[in-house]
Amino acid sequence: MTSGWRSARHQRRLFDRAVAQYGSREAASRWVLPPDDSAHVRGQAVDVGPAEGMAWLEERGAAYGLCRRYANEPWHFEPLTEPGGTCPALEPYSVPSGGPG
Ligand SMILES: [Zn+2]
Q1: How many whole angstroms from 80 Cα to the centroid of ligand 1?
Q2: What is residue 65's three-state secondary structure?
Q3: Which helix (H) or strand (E) holds 27?
């Protein structure tokens, strides 16, 4: 596991850094959500690595209720089904609840 729960303050730093890197809040939000929208801040997301770990969890995560959520983030998993359930379809990338802006 490479990341789990994050404080709002830490998430804010990550988001601000991503805005500087990608040039806009909208572009940054595809990779890092602001604190109010991040499942990491709610304690409802984990990031895993390396690639073998991502592949392992993508194959077996539903048994634990953990699903990959975004097509562009193979490392990011959230509890999106009941253990043994079926994961929802991948979303292309993360979108802030208030919309880009
Ligand atoms: Zn993540």
Answers
A1: 14
A2: coil
A3: helix 25-29
Q: How is the chain split into domains, by residue range? A: 1-40, 48-91
Which of 53-62's residues contact partners 24+ apart within 8 Å by CB, and which partners?
Answer: 61/87, 62/86, 62/87
**Torsions phi, psi for 36 (to 5 deg):** -65, -20
What is this structure's pTM? 0.92
- Ligand 1 mean position to 19 CA, how many Å? 17
Residue 29: how many CB atoms within 10 A of its CB? 23
Beta bridge partners of 67: 78
Q: Which two tokens stand for residue 44?
A: 């409802």
Measure 11 CA to ligand 1 centroid, in angstroms: 11
pLDDT digits (tens, 9 = 90+) for 54-75: 999 999 999 999 999 999 999 9
Instruction: Output the CA 2–ligand 1 centroid distance in Å.
Output: 9
32 Cα–ligand 1 center, Å: 8
